[in-house]
Amino acid sequence: MRQSKLFGKTLRQKPKSATVKSHELLLKAGFIKPVAAGIYSFMPLGFRVLEKVDRIIKEELAREGVQHLLMPLVHPSTLWQETGRRKKMERILATFRARHGGEYLLAPTHEETVTDLARLFVLSYRDLPVIVNQNQWKYRDEVRATGGLLRTREFLMQDAYSFDVDEAGLAEAFTKVSRAYHQIFKRMGFAMTVVKADSGAIGGAGSEEFMVISDAGEDLIFVCDQCDYKANLEKAESVPAPFKQDEEVKPMEAVLGKGIIGVEALAKHLRIPVEKTTKTLLYQADERVVAVCVRGEYKVSEVKLGNLLGVSDLALASEEVVEKLTGAKVGYAGPVGLPKEVEVIWDRTTEGRVNFECGGNKTDYHNINVNFGRDLSRPKEFVDVREVKVGEGCVNCKAGKLKEQRAIELAHVFKLGTIYSEAMRAHFLDEKGAKKPLVMGCYGIGMTRLVAAAVEQHHDDKGMIWPEAMAPYRVHLLSLRAEGVEQRAERVYEELLHAGIEVLWDDREESAGVKFADSDLIGIPVRLVVSAKTGEKVEWKKRDEQEVELLDLDEVKTRLK
């Protein structure tokens, strides 16, 4: 490709909208162009990277016996009503009414569509197992789109779906796709970290995320410093450090703490450790209100809470609802004296405490020396509904401590089980002729996000440094203006093309400084220079190295092959 004919231009200034390095460099190098918030055009250079990613994914999945297909981007809402996700995922669905009648939506994912296909074509155990895959565009009407390609509304995704007769078959499919993923990311130059994850709106019995460690990542993961325990914030568990309890049970007492809400200030005012304070939050969970109690220094994990309750909509209760149920302003709610219809959920961190504090359900008042069995009924169970903290004990080995890392999620794999097949009546006949629901799994890679993650992992202060497998071209040929150079450069260009080597030739009428700067910015693995100084030879330099060599063209072709 002659760069003078390349559609798209490089930029000299940092784009004002860029907040992370990958966004800045992809915009400056002309790989992408924003159309609207979270929606991008992929220019020829960027599209070539996507094509490389697409090919690698399809090749590695095919090695594991995965069949490729293509499903539509537009779905009838009736499919999503069968599973209940039309309402559950309403906040991110982009829907429209068709002129011929009926409601449709832009697909954020394809579980319903693929299950609809399976119930038509997978009728017997003889049709199983099967894994199908597509690389397809998705749209999610997210409130927030940030970090360039790291979080978009429209994105290209690889999503595969497995169908099996039982859980053992699902486990085998899970292993096959995970193995393919490891090979995919190895070819692309990623060092992966696999963590336990929350299944979110997809659902199912369990899931894992494939992460790359990066300061630009939006995800927080917690890893043990002694064993292989790894989990994202939404799934992580820990062992809190114990603290000394009172030996004597004291009478409960209401104490004035005018205007004091924060736990640190409250603990200081009451002269008790923060661990004795209790944070009580009221949530609107679908049609009911629940109260959640955690130890004062912790945050409630709304993901864990939502999963525990199995609700579609979860949000903090309004000020009006809080005042109606507690008789107090927000910040003074407590479990003592709440109406019976309000279920109280107790986090594990609240178990075993003696003489603890909680809100007094009266503005400016707090109850101290509260105890289970006397002031409150002991709950049937204490559950995990909090976010863990750095430095807490590992639940796996009990010896290590948790540390925090930022990461970018590249892939997510789910053991769906039968939640979709039962909802959509996708059954098969087993060997005895009995009707059973298909056992499903789903597996996805964010392909456009992967492009950004590669840049986050591979760049310097001059520009991008593409891994060879993902690079838009293998060679960036630069010809520096001088008599006879253009003809020699064209001969090099033609011979490399004839040898089957992908070449971007910078034949523009630009200065050497501009060409070198753009070459570093674009980040193609090998730079070749033809100039008056190189004579009949070619200057060779790898993008990630400093060494420069003069080589014969035959040696160049040998190295590239």
How is the CATH topology of the largest domain named? BirA Bifunctional Protein, domain 2
Separation of the first and last Cα atoms: 19 Å
Number of strands: 28
Shape: globular
* Overall SS class: alpha+beta
Overall pLDDT metric: 94
Tell me the name of the CATH homologous superfamily of the largest domain: Bira Bifunctional Protein, Domain 2
Continuous helix count: 14
Largest beta sheet, briefly? 9 strands, mixed
Enumerate the spans where pLDDT stays under 50 for 5 or more consecutive residues. none
Pick out its properties.
BirA Bifunctional Protein, domain 2, 5-stranded mixed beta sheet, 9-stranded mixed beta sheet, 27% strand, 3 domains, 14 helices, YbaK protein, single chain, alpha+beta, Rossmann fold, 561 residues
